[in-house]
Design goal:
The relative contact order is 0.07. The strands form ten sheets. Strands 1, 2, 3, 4, 5, 6, 7, 8, 9 and 10 form a ten-stranded mixed beta sheet that branches. Strands 11, 12, 14, 16, 17, 18, 19, 20 and 21 form a nine-stranded mixed beta sheet that branches. A three-stranded antiparallel beta sheet has the order 23-22-38. Helices cover 36% and strands 18% of the residues. β32 and β33 form a beta hairpin. The chain is an alpha/beta fold.
Length: 865
């Protein structure tokens, strides 16, 4: 099997034919790869291991609040005295746990500060493999912040390595933006394997654990691990070490070092720190260094021009810094960095943030908390002088900048592994001497084989992996304020559309029952009518009748008479031993045509009936009928259930369940919603948790999402989902020129109904079309392309909830192409052809169009406050 993720030189040192990248690299080969060498100067152990083939990694974990500082020193000191490199695995305490005692923190500070080339801090984050990229970053950032606070009064190395308890290979590339280069999977047993976690980080799997508290002589376990061929990773756990004496703990540490020394003397292994692992992948794991030119002074323009010309001639990429208001047009140049001014920080220009042609960088003197949300949502990177890397509670990536005059340290020892941003100020090139030093430093970075120079856009692309869900959230926040609509539809336009929609009900209603056909297919003189109504259909019918009356299309008496007919038609059937509304009734007779109960459809009906019961002309009209329904019997463990063939079926995991839950709550039932997630430390964390939790609920469309706006008022989770959906549709149009407006819809062809909407968690095939059947003929790219719609009722719902240029564009598109003379509106306009569904109309489309228009002309206010 061909190995990937390694440089050519590293591949030559790899064993072939293995699933994982088993790197056979000896000490001499390792040093050749590194030129100039990055490891420790030779020690007795290192010299003895010059011809060794296999790497040995040593770690100490179990360091926590219960670890006595003197026991920690007793065990680790023999390693430091013997110049044996070792990694210290540290865990940030949970909220309920105490922090490390002062004495332990001081001991760790001393170990890391006195021997940074010998001791590496490794952050342990359990459960990281189960987290999404966003929460991987957040958890790692919080742990790094804890480590920074632990060592706030001392110089300490930022971690390059984290450890976790993953049992299998996992993608941890999301952590590269925080400077993480290597990941140790401590949950997997030997043998040790080395591989790229994906592309930007490297993983080391397989570990032997030695429990020091219960092992008087670790040599036996160490020797057994070392007898196995290949690389070895040994973890010395100090859990429970407080029960042992200081002398015993030191003796055990010394015995461990002696066993390791004997192994090194055999010449089979050399010792490496965990971070060294990334270096063995050569140019495929290069570090990235970005260069930013700061603003210039009045006297430095000529020198700056000369410097930039010379950098371009040398092929050294860089990013410029732009002051607010200095851009041309409505976009920042790609690669440029915005200097955050006081005007932006106090929010006065928060809504005037131009889009960037590429990733948008900003620079500030501090990672300010006063950044307006619109600014924070627009920025891909905030560069702050000498800040620690962070992915904060706003979802904002912060990276520190190193002044070019202090950059030499990044070419030394371990710091040559660190991704970095260099800043060049006017004083760094304003005099001939400063100019020369700056150019010489840039040449040194360019010549460094471990470094790739990039501009800030390149830095982001190289170190930040895409997170499709987080990108959706950020896009919606940037679009939080919809621009003014230069050409909105007039009241006359809306009324014309309302009359058009009402023609469906005028033509296809049954005078004796007040009911209406579900769908009508009118082709010339031929006509096919579908005379079955679901409770969802019935809800839309009642909503349309109420809207028509409100819009003056029917007088009071006609409205009241029709409402009374519809209430009489509400079914009460024995379903699974319960009195419930049946799933389907006949539009001709009102008789039940199903022995099932549909929770989602009934939620729609209940929401509309609440408005009908509150109407002054029909006050309490449906209460007697709805009280006969045994709705409490279908609520089990706070989930509203359907009844299928007499058996309760949980329908909680659906986008409809939240709307249904709100309708049931309005009637006093204590029910749960899949949109309601546990509280989180920040709003961004909560939003991301919600978006992730609904990713498996299927296509996110306008229905029933936007019914909340018209009937109930938008709940917080629905408001977020609506913003994300609308933003994704608008950005899709901006990228492709195709109008996106998705919702569930009937079709004028088999399989007759589809659920269309946004696939929140997909990077590709983002727009879903799911047929209401398992027939494989309707699960093909061709079918999806042929049946994707600009949905008519969704366009009017967006015009009601999110007025602005894009919703008006959608509405104009469908009102011209989906209009059917004498029939109403068709369900939508096919995306592939730009043509409406010929001759085909349905009750839901026209009922919702009427409901949305009534809401708009009411001043976008709900009937019920």
């Amino acid at each position: 099997m061909e190995l990937t993720g390694l440089s050519q030189s590293a591949q030559l040192l790899c064993s072939e034919g293995t699933l994982t990248m088993q790197m056979k690299v000896n000490r001499r080969g390792f040093l050749q790869l590194m030129a100039p060498p990055l490891l420790l100067p030779g020690t007795a152990f290192w010299v003895a291991a010059q011809g060794a083939d296999d790497a040995l990694f040593l770690l100490v974990d179990g360091i926590g609040p219960a670890t006595p500082a003197d026991r920690l020193s007793a065990f680790v000191d023999p390693f430091l005295e013997g110049e044996v490199p070792i990694g210290l695995v540290l865990s940030a305490p949970s909220v309920s746990d105490p922090d490390l005692p002062v004495t332990v923190a001081e001991t760790l500070r001393h170990m890391l500060g006195s021997a940074p080339d010998m001791v590496e801090p490794v952050l342990f984050l359990p459960g990281l493999a189960e987290l999404s990229p966003y929460f991987q970053r957040r958890a790692t950032s919080e742990s790094m912040q804890w480590l920074s606070s632990l060592f706030a009064d001392a110089t300490h190395p930022l971690p390059l390595t984290i450890a976790t308890d993953a049992l299998t290979l996992t993608n941890f590339d999301a952590l590269r933006c925080l400077g993480i280069r290597a990941v140790l999977n401590l949950g997997s047993p030997p043998p040790v394997s080395s591989t790229g976690c994906a592309r930007l980080t490297v993983c080391l799997n397989g570990v032997t654990t030695v429990a020091i508290a219960s092992t008087s002589d670790p040599a036996s376990t160490i020797n057994s691990a070392l007898d196995r061929p290949g690389w070895t990773q040994i973890v010395f756990s100090l859990a429970g070490i407080g029960q042992e004496s200081v002398a015993d703990v030191r003796l055990r540490g010394q015995r461990a070092v002696d066993a390791i020394a004997r192994e090194l003397e055999r010449g089979r292994r050399f010792i490496a720190l965990p971070r060294d692992h990334a270096l063995w992948f050569g140019e495929d794991q290069s570090r990235y260094v970005a260069i930013r030119l700061a603003g210039m002074s009045d006297t430095s323009a000529a020198a700056r021009s000369s410097l930039t010309a010379e950098m371009k001639a040398l092929g050294i990429p860089f990013s410029d810094t732009i002051q607010p208001g200095a851009q041309t047009g409505d976009q920042w140049p790609e690669g440029a960095c915005l200097n955050l001014s006081t005007a932006y920080l106090d929010g006065s220009d928060a809504t005037d943030v131009p889009r960037s042609a590429g990733p948008l960088c900003a620079t500030s003197l501090s990672p300010t908390d006063s950044l307006p949300p619109a600014i924070a949502a627009s920025i891909d990177l905030l560069a702050v002088p000498e800040a620690n890397a962070a992915f904060d509670e706003r979802g904002l990536l912060i990276r520190g900048e190193t002044p070019i005059v202090e950059a030499a340290i990044l070419l030394e020892d371990t710091d040559r592994m660190r991704d970095a941003i260099l800043s060049i100020r006017s004083e760094d090139y304003g005099t001939p001497a400063a100019y020369g030093k700056t150019l010489e430093m840039l040449r040194r970075f360019q010549a460094d084989p471990a470094t790739k120079l990039v501009d800030l856009s390149g830095f982001l692309r190289a170190t930040v992996t895409s997170d499709v869900i987080f990108d959706l959230l950020r896009g919606s926040r940037h679009d939080a304020v919809e621009p003014a609509d230069p050409e909105p539809l007039s009241a006359e336009d809306w009324m014309a559309d309302a009359r058009q929609a009402w023609t469906f009900f005028e033509r296809f209603s049954n005078a004796s029952t007040g009911l209406c056909v579900d769908t009508a297919d009118v082709q010339g003189t031929d006509m096919w009518l579908h005379r079955e109504l679901t409770m969802w259909d019935l809800g839309s019918l009642i909503a349309g009748v109420m809207a028509a009356h409100e819009l003056g299309l029917t007088p009071d008496a006609v409205f009241v008479a029709r409402a009374e007919q519809l209430v009489r038609a509400l079914p009460v059937a024995v379903i699974g031993g319960r009195l419930l509304p049946s799933e389907v009734i006949s539009s001709e007779t009102g008789k039940s045509l199903s022995n099932d109960f549909n929770a989602c459809d009934t939620g729609r009906l209940l929401s509309v009936l609440r408005e009908l019961d509150a109407h002054p002309l029909t006050l309490g009209l449906a209460q007697e009928k709805t009280r006969r329904w045994d709705l409490e019997s279908v609520v089990v463990d706070k989930h509203v259930h359907s009844v299928v063939r007499g058996v309760l079926r949980d329908r909680f995991r659906s986008h409809c369940a939240h709307y249904t839950a709100r309708a049931f709550r309005d009637r006093g039932f204590d029910v749960a919603s899949p949109y309601e997630v546990p509280d989180m430390p920040s709003q961004t964390d909560r939003d991301m948790l919600l978006l992730q939790s609904v990713g498996d609920l299927g296509a996110l469309g306008a229905e029933p999402l936007l019914f909340e706006a018209l009937e109930m008022g938008m709940s917080k989770p629905s408001n977020l989902l609506a913003s994300v959906l609308f933003s994704a549709q608008k950005h899709g149009f901006e990228r492709t020129g195709n109008l996106y407006c998705a919702s569930e819809s009937p079709l004028n062809r088999a399989p007759w109904f589809t659920y269309q909407g946004l696939n929140i968690s997909a990077a590709e095939d983002r727009w879903m079309v799911t047929a209401a059947t398992e027939d494989v003929r309707f699960d093909t790219p061709e079918f999806r392309e042929e049946t994707s719609l600009v949905n008519t009722k969704a366009a009017y719902l967006w015009a009601a909830h999110k007025p602005g240029p894009y919703s008006t564009l959608l509405t104009r598109h469908v009102r011209m192409r989906a209009r059917l003379d004498g029939v109403g509106f068709s369900p939508g306009v096919f995306l592939a052809t730009g043509k409406g569904m010929s001759g085909y109309a349905d009750i839901n489309t026209n009922g919702v169009v009427l409901e949305a228009i009534a809401f708009i002309l009411r001043g976008r206010k709900r009937r019920l406050g």
